[in-house]
Amino acid sequence: MPHHLFRKGLAAALCAALCLMPTAHAYAAPARIKDIVQVEGIRENQLVGYGLVVGLDGTGDSLNNSPFTRQSLQSMLERLGVNTAGENVRTANVAAVMVTASLPPFAAQGSRMDVSVAALGDSDSLQGGTLLVTPLLGADGEVYAIAQGPVAINGFKAQGDAASIVSGVPTTGRISSGALIEREIGFELASQHTLRLSLRNPDLTTSRRIAMAVNDFIGAPTAVPEDPATVRLTLPHGFNGNIVDLLTDIEQLIVQTDQSAKIVIDENSGIIVMGKDVRVSAVAVAQSNLTVSIAENPEVVQPAPFSNGVTAVEPNTELNVTQTDTALQMINQTVSLQELVDGLNALGISPRDLIAILQAVKATGALQAEIEVL
């Protein structure tokens, strides 16, 4: 692209950015309180267990390579009255698995939840298998649920004598409503007089706005912002209800959220994600592309007739270097980074070039944002 066209295109993009610059109020994103906070005590708990999947069609663990599967199988049979001590058990229809689940908050005894199953040994597939009774333990070592049922997988594996095909991951699966909750986690929410609201995206401004919205609605100093991630909620005197009623009343309140300026970059995939408040100060930018292409076209050379020579392969390498440069461009005023990137994209600059430009602008101090590289 000619330099004068590049300058005109970039100037037009920057002028559009300055003319369409939104106000500070337009940047605020309204959201309900229930969507931006978590209430203390209302949380999931992770459970884990070890079990056996049976009924596999020859795709289970190799007992010689998976001693834990052999031991588990023998222990299970002994509990059922079958003595296999000293016997050489040979079966390919059993697989050792790890079972994981998330215990929902306030889950009642006798209710059900989903569980995930993943092979632990060298099983090829869990297709058609059934998980046997598996206790699920919490971090305290107590059993909170029992899992059992047929395993549904999202992939498959098929093979013949000379070829095989695998779709998805056939060694992981899920059992819908496969665990029965045996123990409840005690937490009496209604009896609490003070709770903490934890922001999912900690921010001082958002924390203060939440407290102000709650206090304005209740008409009393009910909420206090303690830090960027916490707002303390106290049941006001004379309130007609308990803490559950208070949470129900305030969770629908709309708050203008705020966040710090940040750019997240994934250099492996060339992905750039930027926040709405990112700004670029006055800076000059020039960009150059260097493309190197190498092609190998070996040539076969035959010896002369009736000679003692041999056929040889002569290397033939084609090397091309292409370099395109852009003139040094001056950005004289603070503009929205989104508008700047849109202008550069319109001129055909790739995401990987944008990453390099953003990092260089950040190094000069002209980029008012934090860059996080994944």
TrEMBL record:
InterPro entries: Flag_FlgI. Belongs to the FlgI family. It holds the Pfam family FlgI. GO terms for cellular component: bacterial-type flagellum basal body, distal rod, P ring; outer membrane-bounded periplasmic space. Assembles around the rod to form the L-ring and probably protects the motor/basal body from shearing forces during rotation. This is Flagellar P-ring protein. It comes from Devosia crocina. Keywords: Bacterial flagellum, Cell projection, Cilium, Flagellum, Periplasm, Signal. It comes from the Bacteria. It is found in: Bacterial flagellum basal body. The basal body constitutes a major portion of the flagellar organelle and consists of four rings (L,P,S, and M) mounted on a central rod. The keyword Signal applies. Residues 1-26 form the signal peptide. GO terms for biological process: bacterial-type flagellum-dependent cell motility. GO terms for molecular function: structural molecule activity.
